[in-house]
Amino acid sequence: PPIDTIINAQDFEDIAERTTTKKTWAFYSSASTDCITRDKNKEYFGRIWFRPRLLRSVGKVSTRSTMLGHDIGLPVFVSPSAMAKMIHPDGEKGIARGCVEDRVPQCVSTNASFPIEEIIPSVPKEAKHPFFFQLYVNKDRAQSEKLLRHVRSLGIDTVFVTIDGPVQGKREADERVKADESLSTPMSGQKAKNDRRGGGIGRIMGNYIDPNFTWNEFAWLRTHWHGKIVVKGVQCWQDAKRCADEGMDGVLLSNHGGRNLDNAPPVIMTLLECQMNCPEIFSQIEVFVDGGVRRGGDVLKCLCLGATAVGFGRPFLYALNYGEEGVQHFIDIIKQELEIAMALIGITDLRQCDASYVNTAELDPL
Ligand code: FNR
């Protein structure tokens, strides 16, 4: 269908389901076992209600903000996801190009389909576009050290360390469809293959990730990385607080879009849990959220509950079906939805967001 008939994230998803290969759909859309967390991530946003304040002159609304020291056009970023090339030959480069105009930061996965040195130059240098790098810690530490040096040499100042997949979830839809064995991820040096358990790409290509990585080893990381650190995949307030206590720069509350631990809590509950139990962390470090965010209004709810910015995973991949134009169109949609929701709750600037604009009674007590 023509791109101008697409008016929300769900449209992109429906079209992706109909038009991509079986394997691409299985890998992108799948989540672990019964997919409860994947689906509840999204559904639980519907249990937070706005508390609009009216008659406030909202003719001019700005979605500008900052994230980890970068100016951004809206409080949204591209969550790192593996192998964008499966849906479009431009892969992560297309995502980057689609993000430039609105200054939407892109976090590039260790499992990206292009090496990062090819992704960064796909946008004009003058744009100073914010890129981050997502690290999966390799069992072979020397490999991670090399990658970190490389990433730093390219000017990246922040690494997101993903901790929610010491082992990979059992993603049944992905296991059921055979993997194309020509697929590879250059930065982690993995190749797809099929085995007796199935063709699950995440499982097979995530084999290098160290399941024995612990809190203690952030000391190792800090000797090899002098930039900012965000811990991705935190799912309870105690771990979020520990991130703040250990002097991380940020924490990304995330359950990997339900792809690892099924029945992990919907991410908005984790955010609320942090608000209730360790509200001080919101002024100590930047708190991010991803998983099931599909509307500008969802973004606004997260910001009212203390998040600095919100990540989208699958929606960017589905938008990339239309190349960079699709990505840009998707960002436009989210930006418009956010502007409308801001005006309708009675704010014109994101700094005005606070918990008084949401009613969380349906999700309390935790
Ligand atoms: C991911 N995600 C992910 N996360 C990460 O840290 N490294 C990675 O390589 C990947 N790869 C990946 C591939 C695919 C196909 C998906 C869908 C997701 C998780 C991602 O960063 C994010 O946490 C979720 O996608 C957020 O949920 P939504 O927005 O997809 O619902």
Automatic annotation (TrEMBL):
Domain FMN hydroxy acid dehydrogenase, residue spans: 1-363
Co-factor(s): heme b; FMN
Compartments it resides in: Mitochondrion intermembrane space
Catalytic activity field: (S)-lactate + 2 Fe(III)-[cytochrome c] = 2 Fe(II)-[cytochrome c] + pyruvate + 2 H(+)
Biased composition (Basic and acidic residues): 170-181
Keywords per UniProt: Flavoprotein, FMN, Heme, Iron, Metal-binding, Mitochondrion, Oxidoreductase, Transit peptide, Transport
EC number(s) on file: 1.1.2.3
GO annotation, cellular component aspect: mitochondrial intermembrane space
An annotated Gene Ontology molecular function: L-lactate dehydrogenase (cytochrome) activity
Annotated segments matching region Disordered: 170-196
Subunit structure as annotated in this protein's UniProt entry: Homotetramer.
Family: In the C-terminal section; belongs to the FMN-dependent alpha-hydroxy acid dehydrogenase family. In the N-terminal section; belongs to the cytochrome b5 family.
Name of this protein: L-lactate dehydrogenase (cytochrome)
Biological source species: Oleoguttula mirabilis
Parent-protein start and end of this portion: 106 to 471 of 496
